[in-house]
Design goal:
11 strands, 5-stranded antiparallel beta sheet, about 150 residues, 6-stranded antiparallel beta sheet, globular, about 40% strand, mainly beta
């Protein structure tokens, strides 16, 4: 992985023109180095990231537009424009757009570890089924939790 270079990633663009489709959400990587990675995310209404754990990364989300409902270590929270969501490594969290509005936010993780490769892997899946996403994620240091018992 290359060291981070100084510069500006212009609005509406990402690294090398990359745009990933991850489970119905759009992720545009903005910065990549060994120590951190950032991306702009768009969550259409009804999309979500089920509860999971990053055992090797701290994760942050800065809310630009809309509202996200979160489950953090089993507790429910809501975040809106201007809020910063802090997700320490090893703590379970799920991210949900339960509103009827598009959510735009800015994510970053530190360190990068295998997340960049994971996003390419999910984006490249022939079909992004929950089973396929869970399996590939486990190989890239993201552990999805089992669904709650019925």
């Amino acid at each position: 992985m290359q060291p981070m270079s100084a510069g500006i990633t212009k609005a509406g663009t990402g690294i090398d023109g990359i745009v990933w489709n991850i489970m119905g959400q759009t992720y545009v990587p903005k910065q990549l180095s060994e120590s951190s990675m950032s991306w702009h995310a768009t969550f259409p209404p009804g999309t979500f990231v089920p509860p999971h754990i990053h055992p090797t990364q701290d994760e942050f989300i800065y809310m630009l537009e809309g509202r996200l409902d979160l489950v953090l270590e089993g507790r429910e929270f809501a975040a809106t424009s201007g809020d910063l969501i802090r997700l320490p490594m090893g703590q379970a969290h799920g991210i949900f757009n339960k509103s009827d509005q598009v959510v735009k936010c800015f994510f970053w993780v530190a360190p990068t570890r295998k997340l960049y490769d994971l996003f390419w892997g999910i984006h490249s899946l022939p079909e992004q089924t929950p089973e396929a996403v869970v399996a590939i994620s486990a190989k890239h240091e993201v552990v999805f939790l089992p669904p709650p018992a019925a």
